[in-house]
Amino acid sequence: xxKINSEAHYLRxxxxxxxxxxxxxxxxxxxxxxxxxxxxxxxxxxxxDWNFSxxxxxxxxxxxxxxxxxxxxxxxxxxxxxxxxxLPFISIGIAEIESKFMGETAKNIQRAFxxxxxTGAVLFFDEADTLLGKRLSSVTQGVDNEVNSMRSTMLIxxxxxxxxxxxxxxxxKNYDEAFxxxxxxxxxxxxxxxQARRSLWGRMLVREIPIAGEREEFxxxxxxxxxxxxxxxxxxxxxxxLPKPLMHAGNGEARLTLDHLKDSIHQVKQAHVEIGSTxxxxxxxxxxxxxxxRMLGIxxxxx
Length: 303
Ligand SMILES: Nc1ncnc2c1ncn2[C@@H]1O[C@H](COP(=O)(O)OP(=O)(O)O)[C@@H](O)[C@H]1O
Ligand SMILES: [Mg+2]
Hints:
- By secondary structure, this protein is α/β, with parallel strands linked by helices.
- It folds into two domains: about 180 residues, 3-Layer(aba) Sandwich (Rossmann fold); about 80 residues, Helicase, Ruva Protein, domain 3.
- The chain is built from 15 helices and six strands.
- The chain has a six-stranded mixed β-sheet with strand order 1-3-4-5-2-6, with helices on both faces.
- α6 packs parallel to α8, α10 crosses α11 and α10 crosses α12.
- Bound molecules: adenosine-5'-diphosphate and magnesium ion.
- The site of adenosine-5'-diphosphate has 16 residues, from α4 and α12.
């Protein structure tokens, strides 16, 4: 087993976002987030002043699970939660696991929890199904042991944790039951409804962008046409649309038209149809298996 790096490498930063300003959610998800916020804000009152910790010692920490389709704002919400609470943000994602945690995962998890406790940060595990999942049926005994040791470290740390941890996943069903029961709030992230899409388009259609037409009309049309797209895909639409007017402007003034937006929405929807959700799930679980192997220092070529 390769040991590449014994140092924990994860991102600790002052959050760049806030829930109210940066996150657009369907009403139902918003209510759930507000309930989490209330628990977090009144934690001291409930557990210390009202002494609820005497009957619920495990409830001292708050573990949230954000689950739902990709691109719906889970990663953004975790950072924005820290921003709204005015706490630092420690983020551990796939990239850190892949490149830095190899063979040292359990120790690094301990370090991350320790630093979180010291700094009072919000600890975030992105794409957490790789960490908390129950699959790995196809790997060897030695690997199973390594994974199990990493997962029991996680359980031990969570059990005595008194801070705020957030997990995010596209595949909540893969969580092991032992983890599921330690999660205080499961918050479901859905694709944006019409009203949320309107807000997303309003946000993405930054006021400085020169447009040929009525802004409201652009937003109405785009929100209607982008049904089924996630927030991230709406951003992708904008990324695709913005070069279009510049490409054809010549010496004249470049202005975004409704057709540019319609074209880019069509492009993104077309990619949906061609790639399809089944294919992307299969790819993603193959990718998870590959990541787990790499994380454990197994050369996949030799399998
Ligand atoms: N609910 C949302 N509100 C605001 N922006 C969003 C939302 N969902 C997605 N976005 C945009 O898409 C980007 C990627 O979203 P992200 O939080 O990474 O999604 P997830 O973690 O669910 O895959 C965000 O940084 C933001 O620009
Ligand atoms: Mg994410």
